[in-house]
Each structure stands twice: as structure tokens, then as C-alpha cells.
What does this fold into?
Amino acid sequence: MKIHEKIIVLFLWMCSSITVLTTALIIWILVKESVAFFEHVSIIDFLTDLEWTPLFSAKKYGILPLLTGTLLCTLISIFVALPIGISIAFYLSEYAPDRLRSILKPTLEILAAIPTVVYGFFALTVVTPFLKDFIPGLNTFNAFSAGLVMGIMIIPMISSLCEDAIRAVPDSLRQASYSMGSTVFQTSFKVLLPAASSGIIVSIILAVSRALGETMIVSIAAGQQPNLTLNPFETVETITSYIVQVSMGDVPQGSIEFQTIFAAGLTLFIFTFFLNNLSHLIRRKYQEKYE
Amino acid sequence: MNREIRNKVFDIGFRIFGIFSTFLGVILIAIFISSIVQAGFSKIDWNFLTGLPSRFADHAGILTAWTGSLWILALSAIIGIPVGVGAAIFFEEYAPKNSLTRILEINLTNLAGVPSVIYGILGLELFVRSFKMGSSLLAGACTLSLLILPIVIVATREALRAVPQSIRQASFSMGATKWQTIWHQILPASAGGIATGVILALSRAVGEAAPVIVIGALAYVPFVAESPLDDFTVLPIQIFNWVTRPDPEFIVNASAGIIVLLSITFLLNGIAVYLRYRWQKKMKW
It folds into this structure.
């Protein structure tokens, strides 16, 4: 190999090692700063205390209110996105004529291209005022609107991943089902759904992971008040919106108040890291099944 | 009701629900864009586009915000594209297929799933503090480059994989080295696919607010950035700032800001879709 080609390969290798370095640095930074944080705050308090008030004078460091806020918004968004996303996937793959499909698919992709701060604006200024007519006592900042709009944002992610999974099912299964006189609906839900189940599960896991980490919609529409509740009509704060709140405020860097964002960030990262790896594992198994 | 009719009813019922779900998305986009255009379009004029930020909704402009976004777009492209494409070429063409590559593979899917706010924390510790870049454009662009890296890599790898083996073999048989083959044959053949992925990734970077907030970009920057080491703000942060103000006049500003941001996003996406269309047409080997 010529010398300049060796240099090029070295450069390419360095580029690819940046990806490994990024993961390593994320874990290192979160763990290092969290360890410093846990020298001041006991892990037991962090996990069991029912209040999160690091920015007040009476400081409590219980992650639970932030965690329930995060899970509440995620749950609502999945409840919205899952039935709609899967229906779209089956409709586009099994029912819609090819021409219509080739127009609808890119149109739905627009939903995925819209910046999340715009969704947040939509939730706060359109969805919440609209819902207030139907739900008396709805807070201006509430988990419900935020989750609902987050669900809309996630729809194209679920529908396109599910559609890929459904289309990957061998055609022979479809033909066998139709030759027995099944309707499209029966074929879809009794044959294709079980056959594509692992792909569909992967799409749900990735959607949950995405919803957990979503930041701007919840920052704008769900509020910034840690609240240990499962009532969707109340104001809640998620882990991500707490991190934004601290970053926007004038908390001095290096203080214990500031270190809370690393402990909170680590908690979030553990969840998404677990879910992402799980999805990778399932996907590998599933690929093997059809090869 | 006999079975046959019941099955038909279910079939038609689901067809209707499927159409409803699919068009729900389309209708939401329409409602959404029309409501924003209604609220904000009249606000967009020369003064708004060239005005500096202000405490008063009437005078407030978005000059610093959109120039900041363009800076971020350009710098992320300069940093993110070579690194992302380079890494993809290494993964696809050079890396040996063994268990190490499998770990790299898992790592890549993991990176794609890391929440953007966590990238902000990484950028804050690494670029802002350790590399002493401060909350500058450069720190922001580096952070966002890492954020879009997995997207660029995945898209580039797919484009490289689409180039048929016969082209590689023809080039090798003419005595070309591996790099010559990549540079003169494979990259030109996959350029359309790579460009599509890169532009989609950049449009994502322009729309991100959370990581840039975490690295300390400010909402109020009274001057236009002139070098990569200047403080900055971007459109999404400016919009976020206006949305969170209690004064309803700022909602009009936010809508107008969103129109500008969406124009940039849709323009980039439009270019990407067009390039993909042309590339797919050309790509019938």
C-alpha cells in the first residue's frame, strides 16, 4: 500500500473511532459527575425521597417526581402513537394502492422533519386551549397535551418501522392466507401481525426510548414543576425539562445544584441505553429468523 | 349475522380506520401549518428579519437567531460530513468482519438512540469546559456534529452498499488500488444517496434546541456572530424563549419565527427528497 493511502486509512479509522469515543465519553462524564454528586447526597435518598427541590432553600433530592413525570408523558404518547402508527403501517402496506402509498409516505415523513420546539408551540397554543373546553380544571401546563403532541411526533417513527417489518414477511404467508379465503383484515392481524411481531416490538421500544428523551415539547407544554402524580391534567416536570431548566437558569457550574443534571441525565441514559440495546438484540434474532 | 358478513364488516371497518389514521397525520400537518401562518405571517417583514432581539415584542427581530442557525448549519456540515462519511467508508470498506465490528455496530445503534439533551451534557463538559471553547458557535457545531454522526454514517453506509460489487471488481481488475476504487468509482456512484442523508441530518441539526441550550447558548445575543468563537443563539432557542414568555404578543413573534425555521427545514428536506428521487432514477445499474 502506498504511503499516502495508509494515511487516508488512518484518517478513516480515526473518524470511525470517534463513534466509540463518544459513547465512552458520555458514560464517563455522566458517571464521574454523578459520583461527585452522590458524595453529597445518598443514593437511597435519591431513589426514595418523594420530593425534588434542589433549586429551593430546603433541598430534597428525590428523583421519583421527575421519573414519574417522564414516564407519564411517555405513556400518553405511546397510547396515542401505537394504535395510529400500527394502523397506518397495515393500511399503507396491505390496503393502499401503490400510487396513493407513494404520495402518503413522504407526506407523513414531514411530521418527522418538524423541529420539536415547533411541536411544543403547537401543544401549548393550540392543543391545550382546545382541550380546556372539554376538560375543566386542566392546567395550562399539563402532561396530557405534551404527551398527546409527542404521540403525533412519534407516529411516523412507529408507522415506518412497522411497515418495514410487515413488508419483510414473506409473500408466501400472505398467499397461503388469501387462498384459504381470508379477508385482508384477517390476513393482517392473524398472519402478518404475529409474523412481524418482533419488528413491531422493536418499533415500540425505540419509540419509548425516543419519548423518554424528548425535551422541548415537555419543556414548553408540560411545565417545570416537579410533581409526584399520575394525573395527566396536572403540571409535571420530566428529567429532560429539568436539565433544560437548570441550563437556562443562573445556577453556578460546579455547584451541587448544577451537578443534579448529571445524576438526572445518568438516570435517563440508563433507561434509553437499556431500551436501545434490547431493541438491537431483538432485531438480530428476528433477522436470523428469516435468513 | 353470519361469519362471512362479520368478516367483511371488520375488513371494511379497519380499512376506514386505516384511512382515518393516515389522513389524521396529513390533516394535523395542514391545521398546524395554517394556524401558524395565520398567526405569524403578517409579522414577517424586513424589520423582523433584520432586527436585533428586544424586550419589546414590536421591535424584536430574529437577525441574530437566523444568522446563528446558518452558522451552525455551515459549521456542522464542515465538521460532521467528513467525519461521518469517513467513518462510514471505514466501517463499510475497510473494517474486518469480526466480533469487534459487531460491537461497533451495536455502539452505532446506541448512539442513534441517545437523547439529544445528553449530547448537550457531553458538549458542555467536553467542548465548552475541557477544550475551553466557551459557549461558542464552534462548541455548538461540534456538539451537533456528534449528534448527527450516527445519521450520516447510517445513510452513507446504505448508499455505499447500494453500489454493485461488479463496479468494484471492474476497477480492481484495471489495477486500481482500494482507495482509488473508493475515490473514483464508489463515492461518485453513491454521492446522491450520501447527499440525501447528509442534508436530512443537517436539517435535524438546525431544528435542535435542547443540546444547544445545555451547552449554554443564550436567548439574548445583541450582535451578529462574526467568527466561530463568538457567542450565539439559534432560531429554535429564540422561538422557545418567546413561547415561554407570558406576554401574548410574543406568541405572534414565535409564530413568525417558526415560519422562518420551517422554511429552512422544509427547503432542506425538499432538496433531500429531490436528490433521492434523481439518484434512484439514475441508480438502475
